[in-house]
Amino acid sequence: DAGVIQSPRHEVTEMGQEVTLRCKPISGHNSLFWYRQTMMRGLELLIYFNNNVPIDDSGMPEDRFSAKMPNASFSTLKIQPSEPRDSAVYFCASSPPRTGGRTEAFFGQGTRLTVV
Amino acid sequence: AQSVTQLDSQVPVFEEAPVELRCNYSSSVSVYLFWYVQYPNQGLQLLLKYLSGSTLVESINGFEAEFNKSQTSFHLRKPSVHISDTAEYFCAVSALSGGSNYKLTFGKGTLLTVNP
């Protein structure tokens, strides 16, 4: 398996533009996570899905952020409109069917977003 | 809700010296514990995990961590580090978070820099 695949790897956009980050989880995994990493805040969980259903979106910073998982093999994280403070590395991770939380998450390479 | 505290944001050491990266957690329920490593410009990779049984767990590259329930700690150690161990290390806790779903929460990371 190729692992968790994220696209694009790098994104530079102007303030006010819409940004869409994409993620393909590992086949067979049924949990998917979106994290944001910054120097100031470290690694923050934004939202996670279980069987394509959003379970916890309490980490989504504000209404400008939205995430979808239309099927088991694809998820998007959208920011509209984008702001400079959204600049960060965004990671997608997936994990196989959980046996009581014992399973680790497998991370993609991340998308480095720069909003100018 | 669970939380993870990594007490040191940066740890510089010389090659072949021992190192300990500290991690404390808080949770009102039983937890599973993980250490992840992040090399520059890459995603996080699992280093080792504690699920149950022996409180001392080891990785294939010489790291070990000990689960101490009374002190709610899961410190990471290596008796002799190499230049190639330079990376950021994240401690993480998996615990029940609403219903039957488990949530993986990360600490802010510790940057280990191994100098020649």
Characterization of the model:
The complex is a heterodimer of chains A (116) and B (116). In chain A, 0% of the residues lie in helices and 53% in strands. The mean pLDDT of chain A is 92. In chain A, the strands form two sheets. In chain A, strands 2, 4, 5, 6, 9, 10 and 11 form a seven-stranded mixed sheet that branches. With 116 residues, chain A is an all-beta fold. With 116 residues, chain B is mostly beta strands. Chain B is 0% helix and 54% strand. Chain B has strands spanning 3-5, 10-14, 19-21, 24-26, 32-38, 44-50, 56-58, 64-68, 73-78, 87-96, 102-106, 110-115. In chain B, a hairpin with a 5-residue loop joins strand 5 and strand 6.
SSE topology:
The complex is a heterodimer of chains A (116) and B (116).
Chain A (H helix, E strand, L loop, with lengths): L4 E3 L2 E4 L5 E6 L6 E8 L3 E9 L2 E4 L8 E7 L2 E6 L8 E8 L10 E2 L3 E5 L1
Parallel strand pairs in A: 2-11
Antiparallel strand pairs in A: 1-3, 3-8, 4-5, 4-9, 5-6, 7-8, 9-10, 9-11
Chain B lengths: L2 E3 L4 E5 L4 E3 L2 E3 L5 E7 L5 E7 L5 E3 L5 E5 L4 E6 L8 E10 L5 E5 L3 E6 L1
Parallel strand pairs in B: 2-12
Antiparallel strand pairs in B: 1-4, 3-9, 5-6, 5-10, 7-8, 8-9, 10-11, 10-12
The greatest interface between two protein chains, and residues involved on each side, is:
A-B, 24 and 26 residues
Rg of chain B over CA atoms, rounded to whole Å, is 14 Å
The rounded Rg of chain A comes to 14 Å
Kindly estimate the percentage of residues of chain A that lie in beta strands according to DSSP: over 45%
The end-to-end span of chain A amounts to: 36 Å
Total count of strands of chain B: 12
What is the helical fraction of chain A, as a range of percent?
under 10%
Rounded to the nearest angstrom, the distance between the terminal CA atoms of chain B is 41 Å
Order of helices and strands of chain A: EEEEEEEEEEE
Beta-strand segment tally of chain A = 11
Oligomer: heterodimer
Give the overall shape of chain B.
globular
Mean pLDDT across residues of chain A: 92
Shape of chain A: globular
Share in helix of chain B: under 10%
